Amino acid sequence: MSRTIKAALGSVAIAVVVLLLKVAAWWLTGSVALYSDALESIINIVASIAAVIALSVSAKPADANHPYGHHKAEYLSAVLEGVLIVLASLSILREAYYDWFAPKTLDAPVLGLAVNLLATAINLGWAVFLTRLGRRWRSPALSADGKHLMADVFTSVGVIVGVALVALTGWTRLDPALAAIVALNILWTGYSLVRTSVGGLMDEAPDPEVTARLRELVAVHANGAIEAHDFRTRSAGRVTFVEFHLVVPGSMAVSDAHLICDRIEAAIRRETGEAVITIHVEPPEKAKHQGVLVLS
C-alpha cells in the first residue's frame, strides 16, 4: 500500500471521528448552523473514500489500454470533491434560508460549542498535514482533500462564532446569517477546486515558473548540443511530462547524443521526481534558432 493511499485512509478515519463530534454538537444545541456543519462532514467522508479509490487507480502501472498510466484518476477525485463542496454549500444556504424565517432558541450552547471546537481543531491539524503532503508528494487528490478540509474548518469557525453570538445576544437570526456567509465562501472554494482539476484533465500548462525552470535545466545540461525547441510540458498527478526537439551537430555520434539526453533526463527527474521525458534528436539543418539555447 502506497504512502498516499495510507494518508487518504487516515482522512476517512478522521472524517468519521469529526462527523460523530459534530452530530453530537448539533444534537446538544439544535442549531441549524451546527447541523449544516455536520452535513458537510458527511461529504468529507464520501470525498475521502473517493480519494482512496482514485489514488489506488492512479498507482496502477501503464497497460495496453492506458499506455500513459492512470495518473489522471486523481484529477477525477479532485473534481468530485469540488462538486461535493459546492453541493454542501448550497445545502447550507437552503437550511440558513429556512431558519432565517423560523429561528430557534439554542439548547446547551456552551457544551455544543466545546464539542464542535474539538472537531474543528482535529480538522485543522489534518487539513494542514494533508496539504503539505499533497504538495510534497505532488498528489492532486491529497491536496484537494486538504483544501476541502480547510474549507470545512472555515465553515466551523463561522458556525462557532454565530452560535456563540446567538447565545450571548439572544438574536437567533445571527445563526443562519453567518452560516450563509460561510456557505458562500465554501462555494467559491469548490469552484476553484473544480477549475484547477479540470485544467489538469485538459493538460493545462503548468505555472510559467515551472516551465522556465525546466527550460533552464535543459540549457545547462545539454552541453554539446546546439539548441532545444518545441518545448512542451504538462502534469498528470504526481508525474511530469516533458517533450522537446534537441538539435545536435551533424557529425555527432548517436552514442554521444544519447549521453546528452541521459544527462538532461537525469537533471529533470532530480527536479520533478517521477517524469516521462521524450526527446527528439535532430540534425543542425532542423534548427529554428529559437526556444532553448544551450549554455556552453
From TrEMBL:
Q: Which UniProt keywords apply?
A: Membrane, Transmembrane, Transmembrane helix, Transport
UniProt-annotated location(s):
Membrane
* Membrane topology category: Multi-pass membrane protein
Instruction: Report TM segments.
Output: 7-29, 41-61, 73-93, 108-129, 149-171, 177-194
Q: Which GO terms describe its cellular component?
A: plasma membrane
Q: Say which family it is in.
A: Belongs to the cation diffusion facilitator (CDF) transporter (TC 2.A.4) family.
What name does UniProt use for this protein?
Answer: Cation diffusion facilitator family transporter
Q: What organism is this sequence from?
A: Faunimonas pinastri
